[in-house]
Amino acid sequence: MNDNILEQASAEAILDHTGEGIYVTDLDCRIVFWNKPAERITGWKASEVVGRRCRDDILVHIDRHGNSLCMPGRCPLHRAMASGEPCAASLVFANHREGRRIPVAISVSPLFGKDGRVIGGVEVFRDESERMRQLEQARRIQRHALSAELPRKGVSVHALYKPQEMVGGDFYQVEATPDGYALILADFAGHGLGAALYTMTMRTLWQENSRHLQHPAKLMSRINQTLEKLTVGDSFATAFAAHVEPVSGLMTYSSAGHTTAMLRAVDGGVSLLGPTDLALGMLAETQFIQESLIIKPGELLLVYSDAALETADLAGRMFGQDRLAGILTQADPDQPDQLLTDIEQALLNHAQSPNLDDDLTMLTVALAPRD
């Protein structure tokens, strides 16, 4: 009976009755199959697209930053065919036949011939318009929770925040204290909406414990005790908290399982700030260590989430601490925004992708020049 069903129903008919758009291309990304849901989602009929490349004014995928994906190394489908490995779902924007952009979640896989060689690729996509409306609202709420204005007098702080999705699991905050500035950068496990909800909890805990902002280890302990009760499953957060006094340059800091912060000296030498304790939310009784150092004029502190180290290339090699330190060494400390941009671009080049697979957040901290 089952064999008869499969004999009577063609593969094309089966694919036309899925809820997701599916198309197949050859190695040159020329479309050879386009199912009915793909027609419904994009407005393009199979008769209009078969035989053409998707970049030929059809889908013309872009990422959420507006970067074109229709080029080798950036096209998800091309990357899957080149590597012989499928790629997990990611959000891109496709061109609808009416000229508007539609958000679609795509998954891509290479298509293998009988001899085991890659002969083409398959992309599966679904309309994410409704989800995008909800995420846009969540994005506005989350962005409002981050520090809107960063200090430039006494202490100069610059930030780069690039969630992997519309919302992310990274959180940072900078706030004035009676004798300086307190800051924190936290990185919750995972990314997307689930991790983003924890960042809102972190914002609340930061505010509730504002009396401890000048004492990073105590701040960590109080936040950790609450998070340990709230996190579920294997959820946790790494974090780096610090307090900087601009007059003396004294910085006290504490690290909860976070990536090692780097301090660039005036001569370009880079030192690593340790040690680090357990991540937040793992063990309520964790006693956090507080360290201190003097930031000198012309020195620059770099604090970052783990994407700055763990971004991998196509062979699985991570970007790593040495590459990051090398960029910091060569940087102009008077141009911190350029440094953050250079690091992000180096990570994208390393991944050979227009987007990273994880949230990326970085802060630079320096003593501001005195008037």
UniProtKB/TrEMBL annotation:
Signal peptide (from-to): none
This protein's record includes keyword Hydrolase: yes
Keywords carried by this UniProt record: Hydrolase
MF-aspect GO terms: phosphatase activity
SMART domains reported for this sequence: PAS, PP2C_SIG
Start and end residues of each PAC domain: 87-140
Domain PAS: 7-52
UniProt-listed PANTHER family: STAGE II SPORULATION PROTEIN E (PTHR43156:SF2), STAGE II SPORULATION PROTEIN E-RELATED (PTHR43156)
Protein name: PAS/PAC sensor protein
Lineage start: Bacteria, Pseudomonadati, Thermodesulfobacteriota, Desulfarculia, Desulfarculales
